[in-house]
Amino acid sequence: MINTPQIELDLEAITLRFADCGAWEERYRQLLLLAKQLKPMDVSLKIEEKQVEGCESEVWLHLHDNKLYVDSNARIIKGLLVIVLACLNKPTKEAKALFNHTLQELGLAHHLSESRNNGISAIWREISSLD
Amino acid sequence: MINTPQIELDLEAITLRFADCGAWEERYRQLLLLAKQLKPMDVSLKIEEKQVEGCESEVWLHLHDNKLYVDSNARIIKGLLVIVLACLNKPTKEAKALFNHTLQELGLAHHLSESRNNGISAIWREISSLD
Amino acid sequence: MTSLKNTRYRQFFPSLNGNNQQIAYLDSAASTQVPEQVLSEIEQYYRQGHANVHRASHSFARNATNAFELARKTIAEFIGAKAQNIIFTSGTTQAVNLLADGLAHLVAEGDHIWLSEMEHHSNLVPWQQLAKRNNAELKVIPVLENGDIDLGYFRQHISNKCKIVAVTHVSNSIGAMQPIPELSRIAHQVGAKIVVDGAQAVAHLDIDVNRLGCDYYLFSGHKLYGPTGIGVLYGAEQALEQIQPSVFGGEMISKVSFEQSTWNTLPYRLEAGTPNIIGAIGLASAVQFLNQFPLKERLSVERSLLNYALQKLEQHPQVELVGKPMMRVGIIAFNLRNVHPQDAATLFDQYNVALRCGHHCAMPLSNTLSPQGSIRLSLGIYSEQSDIDQALDAINKVMELFDD
Amino acid sequence: MTSLKNTRYRQFFPSLNGNNQQIAYLDSAASTQVPEQVLSEIEQYYRQGHANVHRASHSFARNATNAFELARKTIAEFIGAKAQNIIFTSGTTQAVNLLADGLAHLVAEGDHIWLSEMEHHSNLVPWQQLAKRNNAELKVIPVLENGDIDLGYFRQHISNKCKIVAVTHVSNSIGAMQPIPELSRIAHQVGAKIVVDGAQAVAHLDIDVNRLGCDYYLFSGHKLYGPTGIGVLYGAEQALEQIQPSVFGGEMISKVSFEQSTWNTLPYRLEAGTPNIIGAIGLASAVQFLNQFPLKERLSVERSLLNYALQKLEQHPQVELVGKPMMRVGIIAFNLRNVHPQDAATLFDQYNVALRCGHHCAMPLSNTLSPQGSIRLSLGIYSEQSDIDQALDAINKVMELFDD
Ligand SMILES: Cc1ncc(COP(=O)(O)O)c(C=O)c1O
Ligand SMILES: Cc1ncc(COP(=O)(O)O)c(C=O)c1O
Question: Whole-model pTM above 0.90?
Fold first, then answer.
């Protein structure tokens, strides 16, 4: 299992934050707030070699000593990254399934499209390749 | 004006042959018979340099001493060539208009399409370039 | 013989019903009619909202991207391939050109490119030009008197100088089917890539690219009951990687500066510019149309009809067949005794029989088998015995006219 | 202001009515919606009987050929050209590639190819690759801070080493219009050919290729209310003759043997393979759709709407325009303060506002003006004030969400 030192919330705490959300705007508000829970990645790591290919926004990903660091300059992606990290206390494949399930539950499923430029699927591809 | 030693019929005689034609089959029968009225072109002239570009069937065209010789190995085209020649006792532009008019009259107008591979329009292009 | 009377398929093709019922369309090798289903799919797509694909930040774009990528999958499965092995092109011709340019790096001075004598110009001229550019040699598998390729000659003469073998699956001028699995084996033995032009095969055979064993397989949508402007280049895993991009711009790019560019991943790397989205969707719909019929039955109906036509023509005293290949698919070429094929076609037209005359874009073969050209009769899924009978009737009438 | 309320055009576009009425489609620069008329033309063509063009020996083929060549004429006249100067391609990208390959013989070692800094990748990478192949140099007309090109720089630095100038008529990322007549004069003074990428111009300006004075003008059907898979390469008389064929096969050929091939006449020489017949017919139908409206009115309605949007966005305290070109056509690029454009686009989508974010396939310009990318709002003939208002409303709501 990979360590995720950038977050303190676990998945349960995250889904709880969405529990009372009605309209989609509230869900996105929570997602944007979630983004703030991501502790910053060292700026020296935000370089091209660490960038995930196939994202419209820049997404960085760095694995060191079994610790995974991620960041993005798009806040919605950052919020989603928090959920990604929270799922990673499982083997990657299970984690991805859990992530998909969670997004469905939170009403954010359309971020799951397999479209090539969908940052999220690119990130999972990258994480899977770390295995 | 160009001389056309390969035919003896004039346009009037030609149209007369079509006068009693009812069904299209009779018209084509006349056209095929007309083809037999074209005196043969010297075989030594049936060479690639004399060939008209843009015809599906081979059409040869040779001008010498102001005499025009034509031939084709397709009989319908040959019949049409007889009509072409019969129109050439006029300046080319008028001759072409006359030819178009005649074909319309004879109910053979669909040979006039400007389609690139229409042999007839290629022949007129070639004749015009002889002017 | 009941299957000959089968009129199951024709009803789905609006252009062959209604006003056009009297037309015997026997020119499917040139281009096929389009079923109702494809027309309504095209309309529906545009009605629901169109957008450019791939950069999907809104619902129209998401829908377009999903429909486009689903089309890729549908078409891939139709020939036994995976979606990621399918490159969309504008047609077979562009596909061959993409290959001839993209595989140029495999062909060094003195190397050989092998073709058959019966190639369509589209699978001949690009290779000829490549050979010229790279100082390579074009080698030709000759055709036997019956129209089959001389496989023995090929086996004997191919050497490891050969880098590419480009052959048609089915000849568009005489309908001869090539033994592709065998040709693939021979090509691979000398380490060459094999390109198969499937333009005339894909609508008439059960295609499985794995069984064929070829590296590349190409076809056009407009000969498969789909719209014009769309074609497919299938490439086996390794083979696809070998194609270097030769058309640049748009989504085939990953990063661009004025100094240099880096390419996107496959299949996008080989699809420059906005793809023919509606073409892909239309072609996938045509494939779905075909998929709804049991394959064996569909093919056997067509085969029976071809045999019927062949038998009648062979027996006709004034008909001379051009090419009598062992395995024939969809096409019969012939001439009428002492009648120029163009004259015949003109008169056929008068009898509402739509077929082609000429060299059928395969001049070298035509010059070998029938220098004046030939008449070509070709079938589609909608063809019926009445079409053949109408053609036979027209032949008799043409011969009468010419008898004078 | 009455013209802003004009709803004359929208009614003809089925995808923007009915179920989709709530969607503000502001992504026409990527691809346009298709009017009813084009859909029924496509359907009608196929219903009446389709065939391959050019070898017209039967009625379907004659009809197809006539429709296809009439389409060429209709489209030619739309840009003030003659039919024989129009080459059909699969899109702008393929047109640029045809040029970059076909004009390669004009570019010798050490020669220059000039582009502007705001070119779409499709009008950049093909030239970059040509320069690389021929050891020529790519020269760039820089963009000023406001997004206009630095014409003075160009005048000063162009020399008779320049063989080709390739510029966009209207920038797809910021909407800047280039002074093409002036650029043509400058190019011709040094004896260079000038290629104009009209992809973003042709639907929004009164195009007359003679007035523009360019040698080549290119555009895509899918940005002109036509179908995907069809594009146009216009070439002035002499200029067209200069393009050497680089795609081979089918009707572009006059004679073929295994030793050599000779090419057909123009325009066919540059149209290899079966053309996109239905694409050409569909595009001509789109042009006819536009032709039925008085040109001046059509363009002024769109210009008013663009000005309305521009004014509102300029005044908005949280909007930062990207590029403020002197002459703007159809497109506005902007960013929301402290909001990543991709976040904005995601939320716009939620508010049923369809627009794009990103580098808009013009990375070099993007890197100069707005490295993180931008949001692009673009108009079509069907755009209305309500679409702009919906976008403005969405901007306010996005900013609220981001305020937390
Ligand atoms: C200015 C410009 N040039 C070229 C293109 C490429 O057009 P296409 O993708 O239709 O080939 C586009 C469209 O994306 C464009 O906006
Ligand atoms: C065997 C064969 N190859 C290639 C082609 C070229 O196909 P397209 O014109 O669709 O590019 C054809 C069709 O004319 C063909 O019959």
Answer: yes
